[in-house]
Amino acid sequence: KNLKKYFPKKKGLLGGNKSYVKAVDDVSFTIRKGETLGLVGESGCGKSTTGRMLMKLLDPTEGQILFEGQDITGLSDNQIRTIRKEFQMVFQDPYASLNPRMKVGEIIEEPLIVHGYPKEKRQERVLHLLEVVGLSAYHADRYPHEFSGGQRQRVGIARALAVNPKLIIADEPVSALDVSIQSQILNLLKDLQEEFELTYLFIAHDLSVVEHISDRVGVMYLGKIVELTDKETLYKEPLHPYTKALLSAVPIPNPRLKRERILLKGDIPSPSNPPSGCTFHTRCPFATEECSKKVPKLKEIAKGHFVSCHLY
Ligand code: SF4
Ligand code: MG
């Protein structure tokens, strides 16, 4: 609810007023039980920062995080311990997030130890988790460097599942993998969601990755959500010019349905110095004078379809 994360900027030589990089700037959304909410945007749009705040890895500057109705924003590590295991994270780079000196079995066992899982049952649990993600007992005694990228991500997923979480925040879990492996991991995540009644926040930088896995999708630009709706609507009738531009870059199988390609002018501006008014106006093909002056609000223009653009 109204989440903000402002990072203080390094001061110049002359000091001066404190200024901030608005990495996440007033973001609100709900993740419904059992769904996958995709969160999409170019690098630097604040999607990972949002995920890290939900995981309590970063404290928000402002705003609230509610989990099953409980405000967990201000809770200390100690207070949050009991609900901590309900949400787990899967990271983009499975290699960087796996300790190279630990055997894979130990990596998966670690959260079980942290959360007090009975010692005599841990080994059995680890073997079960390996099977659940398509690996086997053979892999337990190996080190991460002996694994392929896809296998390492399976280990990362097994570790996230170890303590039976309800919510998994997956931050670009397939971005570092070969395209041929991506769909295997996406299918695995989908199967696991059904089997264990998981809820996902799935972060990605392009719309093609989240299309098959998401129920709803939010599009972020420079720290804000610019459009949020169910998947069918977003892919068929995108409204925000930025969503349209992102979608026009996604290849579609039937060339006769080809969308008109919308090319954006220039690069994404720095979040440390965002444009005035609608922060997308410097790149938007539909921008009018109003756009550089007035900040558009995220409005619900049809049931469950939120857009922030003066055109609507
Ligand atoms: Fe483009 Fe203006 Fe809409 Fe922003 S408010 S997306 S600049 S038309
Ligand atoms: Mg990121």
TrEMBL record:
One of its GO terms (molecular function) is ATP binding. Residues 1-247 form the ABC transporter domain. Keywords: ATP-binding, Nucleotide-binding, Transport. It holds the Pfam family ABC_tran. Coiled coil: none annotated. CDD domains: ABC_NikE_OppD_transporters (cd03257). It comes from the Bacteria. InterPro entries: AAA+_ATPase, ABC_transp_ATP-bind, ABC_transporter-like_ATP-bd, ABC_transporter-like_CS, Oligopep_ABC_C, P-loop_NTPase. PANTHER family: D,D-DIPEPTIDE TRANSPORT ATP-BINDING PROTEIN DDPF-RELATED, TRANSPORT ATP-BINDING PROTEIN. Belongs to the ABC transporter superfamily. This is ABC transporter ATP-binding protein. It comes from Neobacillus kokaensis.
